[in-house]
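tokens incoming
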């Protein structure tokens, strides 16, 4: 069954870059805020160690994991022509991966593992998502600047 185009929420490609970057930014910030909530009652030196562990993990995850995902997604989006469905800022495989990651996060959060042990994981993944989202916005800015010239 084909969907009537007037009911399809289609947008121009720059909006897809913006939506992807925004999603990565917001989820990254949410995970970092959850992590900070968990460690806010800790003594300063213990909280600092947890944050440093999270930052180190985040840099590694960003560089060796998420940048490859972003580059692959940017390549996929770049090949698209015309207006596309607003939800196509991610591939169907990415939606599946998000569902798996959310399930794992919820499971870990309710597993009985102390939140202090999970805080570096959450802050690391959050930081990696946030840093990786910058690539979407840089790509979008290049398109806007190219279009203006």
């Amino acid at each position: 069954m084909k969907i009537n185009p007037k009911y399809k929420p289609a947008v121009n490609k720059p909006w897809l870059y913006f939506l992807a970057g925004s999603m990565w930014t917001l989820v990254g910030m949410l995970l970092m805020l959850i992590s900070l909530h968990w460690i806010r009652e800790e003594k300063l030196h213990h909280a600092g160690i947890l944050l440093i562990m999270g930052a180190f993990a985040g840099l590694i995850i960003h560089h060796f994991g998420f940048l490859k995902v972003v580059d692959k997604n940017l390549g996929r989006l770049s090949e698209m022509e015309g207006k596309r469905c607003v939800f196509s800022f991610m591939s169907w495989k990415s939606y599946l991966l998000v569902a798996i990651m959310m399930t794992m996060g919820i499971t870990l959060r309710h597993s009985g593992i102390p939140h202090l042990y999970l805080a570096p994981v959450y802050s690391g993944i959050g930081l990696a998502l946030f840093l990786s989202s910058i690539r979407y916005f840089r790509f979008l800015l290049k398109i806007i600047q190219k279009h203006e010239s």
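note: The CA atoms of residues 10 and 85 lie 4 Å apart.
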